[in-house]
Amino acid sequence: MSEHVFNAKTIANEVAALFSEQIKGKTVLVTGVAPCNLGNEFIASIAPHNPGLLILAGRSIATLTKVQDTLLANHPSLNTRLLTFDLSSLSQIRKAATEVTEIDVLINNAGIMACPYEQAKEVNGDVEMQLMINHVGPFLFTNLLLKAGKVRDGGRVIIVSSEAHWLSDLKFEDLGYSNGTKYDIGGAYGQSKTANVLFATSLAKLTKITALALHPGGIQTQLLKHMPEPMMVAMRWKNDKGEFVDSDAMTWKTLQEGAATHVIASFDPKLEGRGGSYLVDGNVAMEKCAPYARDEKVAERLWKISEGLVGENFEFLG
Ligand SMILES: NC(=O)c1ccc[n+]([C@@H]2O[C@H](COP(=O)([O-])OP(=O)(O)OC[C@H]3O[C@@H](n4cnc5c(N)ncnc54)[C@H](OP(=O)(O)O)[C@@H]3O)[C@@H](O)[C@H]2O)c1
User: Fold this and answer.
1) Bridge partners for 53 per DSSP
2) Ligand 1 near 86 CB (within 6 A)
3) Per-residue model confidence (pLDDT) at position 316
4) Spelled out in words, what is the top-level CATH class assigned to the domain 12-218+255-309?
5) Which of 68, 109, 182, 299 is the S-S candidate for 177 at Cβ 3.0 to 4.6 Å?
6) Which atom of ligand 1 is closest in space to residue 163's alpha carbon?
7) Is the pLDDT of residue 2 over 60?
8) pLDDT of 147-189, one tens digit each?
9) Which tens digits make up the pLDDT trace of 110-132?
């Protein structure tokens, strides 16, 4: 049992060194890997600790290759694989899942925020793109891997959520915001991040793997690219000169600080059997999780609806 105390200043390199023994030999698959983002920072932090295989997933082979080149330049003996698929496409997700062999840790890290309205295609229902990419796609990918027995016993599934889940519960009666006519960029992101915590709740209940959700903190990445400037100023993320600032509303983290919770969730032995937990600053923090995001009945409802959207049941997990 590790008895380490983590906080918002804990960095990924430091915790990776702490859990070096747990990283050694593991096969780890991370979605949403690109230079200067959280997926990349997580991978770069664990790379020195002899993982068995790192599977870098993303939608652009050029981006993934860039990340792989840097990794191999620093760690020539590292075993890496690239997996290209778009989380907005059920057919690409299905194909990618067949290409994965056994893994120990899956991090559903890819995500989008506050993008202009777009309707998801290929799903059986009215769903907008933030819910599709942040929840429905990862729901299908994860469950296909579990169904095929590709997550090893003692394995983990980490779902990168956000404190923005407080912005909205699940709008089951109108998941797609009436074909976009009632679209709300913040609410839709919040809904998708609530779905992340609920998915971890269900996986913890239905499977033997340790499924955890986390909030990484606020980090200046490409995730912010769709956020309207006036909104960032109003939220005091930026000052009126357009510069990022710390305030009582937001204390920005570095990439290293942001990715620390990814490393802890994936490898801290203390979290074994703590499935369904929500982590903030490296610690289980259920008090920071909205009640609607950890309600088992709501989680069950979301599971059924998600099965309907992707056109496949995963009752085998029960
Ligand atoms: N940064 C923060 O402050 C913050 C706060 C709370 C939670 N989070 C969560 O942390 C996670 C990582 O965010 P980040 O800050 O590292 O964001 P980022 O820099 O925007 O990286 C997100 C990654 O997701 C990928 N992605 C987007 N749409 C995709 C799709 N349709 N199919 C496959 N991959 C797709 C992106 O690929 P492309 O490069 O091809 O676009 C990118 O690699 C997200 O789940 C986010 O919600 C971040």
Assistant:
1) 27
2) yes
3) 64
4) alpha beta
5) 182
6) 6
7) no
8) 999 999 999 999 999 999 999 999 999 999 999 999 999 999 9
9) 999 999 999 999 999 999 999 99
What is the CA 279 to chain-centroid distance, rounded?
Answer: 12
The gap from C-alpha 146 to its chain's centroid, in whole angstroms, comes to 17
Catalytic residues, by residue number, are 183
Alpha helices in the chain (DSSP H): 12-18, 20-23, 38-46, 61-74, 90-99, 129-131, 137-147, 185-206, 229-234, 255-267, 296-310
* CB-ligand 1 contact for 251 (6 Å cutoff): no
Average pLDDT over residues 13-34: 98
* Nearest protein Cα to ligand 1, atom 46: 111
Report the percent of the chain where pLDDT is more than 70.
98
Domain positions in the chain are 12-218+255-309, 227-252
3 CA from centroid of ligand 1 (Å): 31
* pLDDT over 90, % of the chain: 97
> Is 274 in contact with 210 (CB distance < 8 Å)?
yes
pLDDT for residue 194 is more than 70: yes
Give the distance (Å) from ligand 1 centre to CA of residue 306: 21
Tokens 């918002």, located at residue: 8
Closest ligand 1 atom to the C-alpha of 108? 45
Q: Which residue is closest in CA terms to ligand 1's atom 45?
A: 111
pLDDT band at 1 (very low <50, low <70, confident <90, very high): very low
| Separation of CA 246 from chain center | 24
Q: Which tokens sit at 229?
A: 């400037």
Question: In terms of Cα–Cα distance, which of 71, 111, 103 is closest to 258?
Answer: 111
- Report the DSSP pairing between strands 283-284 and 278-280: antiparallel
Per-residue model confidence (pLDDT) at position 317? 61
3-state secondary structure of 212: strand
Instruction: Please work out whether the CB of residue 221 comes within 6 Å of at least one atom of ligand 1.
Output: yes
- Tell how far the Cα of 109 is from the centroid of ligand 1, in angstroms: 7
